Amino acid sequence: MFTGYRIHHSTVLGPTKGGIRYHPDVTLNEVRALAMWMTWKCSLVGLPYGGAKGGVTADPKQLSASELEHLTRRYATEISLMMSPEGDIPAPDVGTTPQIMAWIMDTYSMHRGYSTPSVVTGKPVEIGGSYGRVEATGRGVMLAAREAATLLGLSLNGASVVIQGFGNVGSVSGCLLHDLGCRVIAVSDSRGGIFNPKGLDPREALNHKGRTGSVVAFPGADRVSNEELLELPCDILIPSALEGAITGENAPRVKTHLIVEGANGPLTPDADKVLYDRQIPVIPDILANAGGVIVSYFEWVQGLQQFFWSEEEVNAHLERILMPAFHQVWQMADERKVPLRLGALIRAISRVANAIHIRGIYP
Ligand code: NAD
């Protein structure tokens, strides 16, 4: 018996959108908070969506493929009254994959009696997924890091990068920053981290993780704990695992010039205060990791139109949407003399509030 949730936080701007998490620590309150984050994220980057999130309290690593399929189909059946291409469109998050999205799409379609690919995004390309979706969140993190580095006068050539959480988001951002000339010096997953001050090849580390299940014991790197990794001196720190990694306790020991939040909520409010006082800029999650939901939006649009784009088109449209949002947030924070997170929230919440005002109250 497993417990699962699906939360709709806001439907003001359009159908709700948000990922599904499979993790042993999933709770109702976590899913509620993540659903709210999705509302602000979609609003910030101008998508016609409200926020939602789903989760099942389960460890997918302990399940066989057929158990995982069983769990997914039952969960999809339970939430099928809440989701639809017009009403609520789930996507992957921690512990869920394109295959799991395919099972959700298939279960929903079987109930309907016809194929409904646009009910979920992050699907495999073979069944209506979008090129560039798997890489989209990490690509957005890379774009945010690149843009922030330019504004801060930080050269990316040889810049040292530390990544906590070498999953979908962390590994893609690591590979793309490596391609821009950065030195990825440390990465980690739930079993621990690896460190080499001269730089690691993130693609080889990913292959090693694929073979062994973890980055730990990657040849040519020293082992570090996840706690030590967050305190390594570096130019760019990318927490991309789970919430609450950097707190008021360890924030004073963080030694970086820039933090880009790959994960949702990796910094606690106490950590925010410490880092703002220390003048370490933090590119907030709702901006830095919005690439995933932006390309999910493209996947939904392509599915509804039955007209599919090339990967180059997807990546170009992603940059076209993310970059103006980035500069608007930077400008807002600059004008109001507030942290970037507050600048982002002012923009995001204002858009939702304005929409509520214009729509009025029914009846
Ligand atoms: P994932 O499951 O692919 O990867 C998560 C990684 O974090 C895994 O390598 C796991 O081993 C590692 N990890 C877990 N606990 C850890 C710990 N305590 N210390 C270090 N590493 C740990 O998940 P993902 O899709 O990459 O998501 C990561 C974060 O990004 C989450 O906060 C998620 O909400 C957020 N996010 C994901 C997407 C997306 O499109 N996948 C979009 C926006 C935000």
Describe the model.
α5 (168-179) links the parallel β5 (160-164) and β6 (183-189). This protein has two domains: 4-129, Leucine Dehydrogenase, chain A, domain 1 (Rossmann fold, 3-Layer(aba) Sandwich); 138-288, NAD(P)-binding Rossmann-like Domain (Rossmann fold, 3-Layer(aba) Sandwich), CATH 3.40.50. It contains twelve helices and eleven strands. With 363 residues, the protein is of the alpha/beta class. The strands form two sheets. A seven-stranded mixed sheet has the order 8-7-6-5-9-10-11. A four-stranded mixed sheet has the order 1-3-2-4, sandwiched between helices. It has helices spanning 28-44, 65-78, 98-112, 133-152, 168-179, 202-212, 226-230, 269-277, 285-288, 291-305, 311-336, 340-359, and strands spanning 4-8, 16-23, 50-57, 88-92, 160-164, 183-189, 192-195, 222-224, 236-239, 258-260, 282-283. The radius of gyration is 20 Å and the shape is globular. The model has no long low-confidence stretch (mean pLDDT 97). The chain binds nicotinamide-adenine-dinucleotide. Nicotinamide-adenine-dinucleotide (NAD) is lined by residues 92-95, 137, 164-170, 188-190, 226, 240-242, 262-264, 289, 292. The site of nicotinamide-adenine-dinucleotide has 24 residues, from α5 and β6.
